[in-house]
């Protein structure tokens, strides 16, 4: 048993029927002590703790709402936040996991107001991923955290909020305390309803082709090297390794891979990539002017650095050894341009054939040496057209699907045909496009506007097919359209340019008398 002190009570009440960015919220759910009596109990995960706080709330779902958007825990206080699990019971008796700290039993405290949302909102950048960091955990909007809950245990499912069946009736919040020794409290709670969050755009391509250097690199720094003066005077004795590389046609730089990279005190080394045009770009720098007083953690393995979302950052001090793997480019507090070295994101470094050079510096030359076995540059081939956003559903149940078999070519060297299937028959149809990017704004009850303004549209054509059926189709020769419209939005296009396209169709019974397809991102090849 561990001994802990009780938390202080914090309270904040929002008005019944309030509206937030996450929907229309219905309040009035009573708070109380957590657990309702005593200080909790545990037989994780088989037997739920006794005396949970169970707070019912009678709800009439707002007109037009089709999903649960969030649950607000207001004035939540509890030491050892990892003890507590929150479960939402729907009117039909289904149990849905909202937040669970077990079995980690995290120590930071709750002390504030917490709004829990569907993980899709985290993927869209609309909320933070929940983590048991800070003390107390800061108030804010967080994605659900299912912890170690196995779906179905004690009848509790790990259901994303927006997938919980919606119905008017009594919803109940249960708060369980999985450990004896302390307790907490909740001031009140709210449940918020709205419409589903559009799915996030597709991630960038995760596969790439790595081109290795022809020869191994070597030891750094060289004998007789001298310390630098951070950041403008670089240390001497840098390791320089070169490779004459020919990137795949039309590709972009995706990653820099250091093979057999070794160094104790992992804040000492700095890695710079020089492209064939002579410009130098910072890949790794963690010294930040520490004057040999950085972190004692080691590099010893193969490390791939990227600037695309999704890869973890290198850990801070105290990990011992940075495991081999893929990590975010790390430039620390380096100011772009210092010592002629830019902090260009790896994916934006211009690509060309020729001599690519890796430079490895050591900001603390007097103590230890490092080693680089080899380096590789990894290039991403141009992606195929990427569908994103969600197609609407027409009054006859059709979901228009926009697609293209291949990306367009800046030189019109290859065909590019846009196709729309599953259209309402005998309806006016066109496509419109943007060069400004993607978005997902509600258009009507089922459709989203998936491209940003300004836009340009093509001339409408009849979809053909049979009335009141989904047999209509539409196609557009993209190259022919641009040839016939040389001043169209975005022209002339060059390799690497992107176009975001969507189809529009007349649907008189629908809201706005129209519906929209999914979105499609085209990326120009040479």
Write up this protein.
By secondary structure, the protein is mainly beta. The protein folds into three domains: 19-194, Sandwich (Jelly Rolls), CATH 2.60.120; 209-380, Galactose-binding domain-like (Jelly Rolls, Sandwich); 386-523, Immunoglobulin-like (Sandwich). It is built from two helices and 35 strands. The chain has helices at 119-123, 478-484, and strands at residues 19-20, 23-34, 53-59, 67-78, 84-89, 95-100, 110-117, 140-143, 156-157, 169-177, 184-194, 209-212, 218-220, 239-245, 252-263, 269-274, 280-285, 298-306, 321-322, 325-328, 341-342, 354-362, 370-372, 374-380, 386-388, 401-404, 417-423, 428-434, 438-442, 448-451, 455-457, 461-462, 472-477, 498-506, 514-523. Strands 12, 13, 15, 18, 19, 20, 23 and 24 form an eight-stranded mixed sheet that branches. The protein has a six-stranded mixed sheet with strand order 1-2-11-4-7-8. Strands 25, 28, 31, 32, 34 and 35 form a six-stranded antiparallel sheet that branches. Helix 1 (119-123) links the parallel strand 7 and strand 8. The longest helix is centred in the last third of the chain and has 7 residues, at 478-484.
